[in-house]
């Protein structure tokens, strides 16, 4: 195979072209070249000189440094994206991948770069957490899924760093947010299961320190209460650090086991679905399972997962655009508090309860008069 040799022209193209290079080629001072390329100087610079500088810049393929321009104007032209690793949130998880796609798209449109923060200082001698974001590396901050009542939020508000939270509506004054209607979505899930004749509905959750998981639990409780069903503590599992098999074995070992399981997210629901197969339970014939998110996991299992969809890419995009609006001064944080509707996606893991006490139960519970007015639709989208 022949080896290609680099020519002098190749080396010139590979070299970073500076303003001084443009000035030298055009035969002008660096100051004059700067004025021309930044649209300054006006009639003080002759037209022929201006054209000569512009032609030199095109010939050399000169590109202005966005970093230098931003620093000169007292900004970094970068948005920070902070993941709360205290809850195991990582950019590669199936939900975060779609959220990041939306954030990245919006940032590019507004000509911002992204800086990812995957954790806070853990050393006792480290600076207070808020100091990690005040070194001018970023102009504003997107916080992904902070814990409930996270003190960092109040510190950011006090520091007046423009910030928008994604996946929590529990934020102090001075902070914007974009979140799904988690209470309404969970109510929608439980209403749907009740409409299928299920009355013993288990709920599998993680730590309720997560704002959204706490909201989903609240929606679960509220939907049961609306239909006169008391919450049975035995049906609530808050130990998802255990295997799905152990959780499901414990639930199905109850004197009055559940006929349906609603999980706080799709990952947990997939774990319960696999556990059901290990335990010889047929889904959905003997056990219905629902998730929340409509992540890529929902359609990679068999049967595909019934779930509550939150528009993840759109939410990421909306959060980034909201932060850009704060930075541009075109909106206040209170004007960028966005609650997004959810959608029920009915697939193959839910079915009518064959042991329902009455054939009239499903129709009475699914009638429009009993559905929550906050829900976007009383009928699920079926896939």
Outline of the structure:
The protein is α/β, with parallel strands linked by helices. It has 13 helices and 13 strands.
Draw up the topology in text.
Layout (H helix, E strand, L loop, with lengths): L7 H7 L4 H8 L3 H8 L9 H14 L5 H7 L5 E6 L10 H16 L3 E5 L22 E5 L6 H9 L3 E4 L9 E5 L1 H14 L5 E4 L6 H16 L9 E2 L6 H9 L7 E4 L2 H13 L9 E3 L16 E3 L2 H17 L8 E4 L2 E4 L13 H6 L15 E2 L1
Parallel strand pairs: 1-2, 1-3, 3-4, 4-5, 5-11, 6-7, 6-8, 8-9, 12-13
Antiparallel strand pairs: 10-12
Helix pairs in contact: 2-3, 2-4, 6-12, 8-9, 10-11
Protein traits:
383 residues, alpha/beta, Rossmann fold, 3 domains, four-stranded parallel sheet, 13 helices, 13 strands, disordered N terminus
Give me the secondary-structure category.
alpha/beta
Q: Tell me what portion of residues adopts beta-strand conformation.
A: 5-15%
Q: Please report the first level of CATH classification, the CATH class of the largest domain.
A: Alpha Beta
User: Biggest sheet, strands in spatial order?
Assistant: 2-1-3-4-5-11
Overall pLDDT score:
82
Largest sheet: 6 strands, parallel
């Amino acid at each position: 195979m022949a080896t290609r040799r680099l020519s002098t022209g190749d080396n010139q193209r590979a070299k970073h072209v500076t303003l001084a290079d443009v000035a030298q080629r055009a035969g002008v001072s660096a100051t004059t070249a700067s004025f021309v390329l930044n649209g300054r100087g006006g009639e003080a610079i002759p037209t022929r000189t201006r054209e000569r500088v512009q032609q030199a810049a095109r010939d050399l393929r000169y590109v202005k440094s966005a970093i230098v321009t931003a620093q000169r104007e007292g900004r970094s032209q970068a948005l920070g994206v902070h993941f709360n690793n205290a809850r195991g949130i990582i950019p590669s998880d199936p939900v975060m991948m779609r959220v990041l796609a939306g954030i990245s798209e919006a940032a590019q449109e507004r000509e911002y770069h992204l800086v990812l923060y995957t954790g806070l200082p853990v050393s006792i001698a480290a600076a207070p957490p808020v100091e990690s974001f005040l070194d001018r590396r970023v102009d504003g901050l997107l916080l992904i899924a902070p814990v409930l009542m996270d003190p960092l939020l109040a510190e950011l508000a006090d520091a007046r760093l423009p910030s928008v939270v994604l996946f929590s509506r529990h934020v102090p004054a001075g902070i914007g947010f974009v979140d799904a209607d988690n209470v309404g979505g969970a109510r929608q899930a439980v209403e749907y299961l009740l409409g299928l004749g299920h009355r013993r509905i288990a709920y599998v959750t993680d730590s309720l320190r997560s704002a959204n998981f706490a909201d989903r639990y609240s929606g679960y409780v509220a939907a049961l209460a609306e239909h006169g069903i008391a919450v049975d503590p035995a049906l609530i599992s808050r130990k998802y650090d255990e295997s799905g098999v152990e959780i499901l074995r414990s639930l199905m070992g109850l004197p009055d086991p559940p006929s349906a399981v609603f999980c706080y997210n799709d990952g947990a629901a997939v774990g319960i679905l696999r556990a059901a197969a290990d335990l010889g339970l047929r889904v959905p014939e003997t056990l219905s399972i629902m998730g929340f998110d409509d992540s890529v996991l929902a359609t990679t299992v068999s049967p595909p997962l019934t779930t509550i969809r939150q528009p993840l890419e759109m939410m990421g995009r909306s959060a980034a655009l909201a932060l850009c609006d704060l930075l541009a001064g075109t909106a206040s944080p209170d004007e960028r508090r966005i609650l997004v509707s959810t959608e029920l996606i009915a697939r193959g893991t839910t079915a009518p309860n064959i042991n329902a006490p009455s054939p009239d139960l499903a129709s009475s519970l699914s009638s429009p008069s009993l559905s929550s007015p906050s829900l976007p639709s009383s009928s699920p989208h079926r896939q």
